[in-house]
Design a protein that fits this description.
19 helices, two-stranded antiparallel ribbon, single chain, mainly alpha, globular
Length: 440
């Protein structure tokens, strides 16, 4: 009987690992695959939500494994981080029950807000199980990330450099799915790269994870040519996205990497000698960005004939943020799941509420209690990563987390499935109890 239980538990874990890896590897290509498959085979909704359906189907497998391996289940539940996630999920269910949004918006809101945490929990359970395949996951993770970075970057460069603007229309892209190309400030020749993701901003956010991993492994293995090529191409692709939020996030991530890779004394010496030249360069760059039309368009997303630098998307952003804050002040306890953020596009009971800030979105949906819980969850993750900051993966995760958090101040970053689900999946594997024990 014991042998049969062990065998069933082993196969249940293999199913979890295969499904987990399948989701992570296909996420950066999900928009392309779902658009092509949804329009050529259909139905589009199933193709778009296959990963959420797969995660739902894994629930019985997780329960079965926890019943067969109560020792592993106990280790997982002993984590205060996992307990906080459970409280956060319960809060979502309560706010879904009393939501003012339509049923479709509520379901979309639950998926967008919780799917990345589901990946974290599955990854945490997988690594805590100490299954032999876990060692292989860590062995193959770096080259897989390098390969994905190169593929996405080459596609991004090709989109801007030589591919026809309507190239993706052959794969189902269009007004009813995803636009086949994106431009700056309605300028037909100012193309923005987005590779196989939903748009330039999602590509920029996803690349932060890849670039952080590449940079850390180059610092660890200076002759890692694979990582170097990935880093170079990824940096070019990041620039070609013209995603200002991703650029700011990359700057924040670089700052974290510098402080984690370089001794403090060396950093202080750099600051002492380079602060003045840096200020001069920044002032010169700002002047060039204001006066040179091409640079102005890339930095401010504003053509030279605009009345101000912020006319257009920048003004719209701050207007949406202001409207979101006003909405939160009028309903500080939230209006329910699906009433704000990308999920609100499905809300037939009201117009969409896009605050262009993930934390404001949570406050609109879950109130101040919900956003406080999420910030606490973020704080616990940062603390755990900081405690292990000497490890390469901790450096990469910490830097990319800070960068993505910056993005979430300007966009609904954690609602974007490739970035959110990938980052939290890797973090779940890394922050599991067996990794903590190994580091001790």
């Amino acid at each position: 009987m014991v042998g049969r239980r062990t065998l069933v538990a082993d196969w249940a874990m293999r199913i979890l690992i295969v499904a987990f890896v399948t989701v992570v590897v296909t996420l950066p290509f999900h928009a392309f695959i779902s658009t092509w498959g949804g329009t050529s085979i259909g139905p589009l909704l199933i193709w778009k939500s296959w990963k959420e359906l797969l995660l739902t189907a894994l629930v019985p497998v997780v329960i079965l494994y926890c019943v067969l391996r109560p020792d592993v289940a106990k280790k997982v539940w002993d984590s205060w981080l996992l307990r906080l996630i459970a409280v956060y999920v319960v809060l979502h269910l309560l706010y879904a029950w009393g939501s003012q949004a339509s049923f479709a918006a509520v379901i979309a809101g639950l998926m967008m807000n919780l799917r990345f945490l589901a990946m974290f929990v599955v990854g945490y359970l997988i690594a805590t199980s100490k299954h032999p395949w876990v060692t292989r996951l860590w062995k193959w993770a770096p080259p897989a990330i390098f390969t994905i970075t190169i593929v996405l970057s080459l596609m991004a460069i090709a989109q801007v450099a030589f591919l026809p603007k309507d190239f993706l229309t052959h794969f189902g892209y269009g007004t009813s799915t995803i636009m086949p190309y994106t431009v700056l400030d309605d300028q037909p020749d100012a193309l923005r790269a987005f590779a196989t993701l939903r748009g330039p901003n999602p590509l920029g956010a996803y690349l932060l994870i890849c670039l952080a991993v590449c940079a850390v492994f180059i610092a660890k293995q200076r002759r890692n040519i694979f990582a170097g090529i990935s880093l170079g191409l990824g940096a070019v692709a990041l620039v070609l996205t013209s995603s200002r939020s991703a650029w700011l996030g990359a700057g924040a991530a670089c700052a974290v990497l510098v402080f984690s890779l370089v001794p403090v004394a060396t950093v202080l010496k750099w600051v002492k000698w380079w602060w003045l030249p840096s200020v001069v360069v920044l002032v010169g760059f700002f002047w060039a960005a204001v006066t040179i039309p091409a640079l102005r368009l890339a930095v401010f997303h504003s053509t030279i004939d605009r009345t101000t630098l912020t006319t257009g998307s920048s003004d719209k952003h701050w207007t949406e943020v202001t409207n979101g804050l006003i909405d939160v002040s009028s309903s500080p306890f939230g209006q329910g799941v699906g009433t704000a953020g990308p999920a609100s596009y499905y809300n037939t009971n009201n117009h969409p509420k896009i605050a262009e800030n993930y934390f404001i979105q949570l406050a609109q949906e879950l109130g101040v209690i919900g956003v406080a819980l999420f910030i606490l969850l973020n704080g616990m993750v940062i603390t755990l990563l900081w405690e292990r900051r000497r490890d390469a993966w901790a450096k990469a995760l910490l830097a990319s987390f800070v960068g993505i958090t910056v993005i979430n101040l300007f966009l609904h970053g954690w609602a974007d499935d490739p970035t959110a689900m990938t980052w939290w999946a890797i973090a779940g594997l890394y922050l599991s109890s067996n990794v903590a024990a190994r580091k001790k």
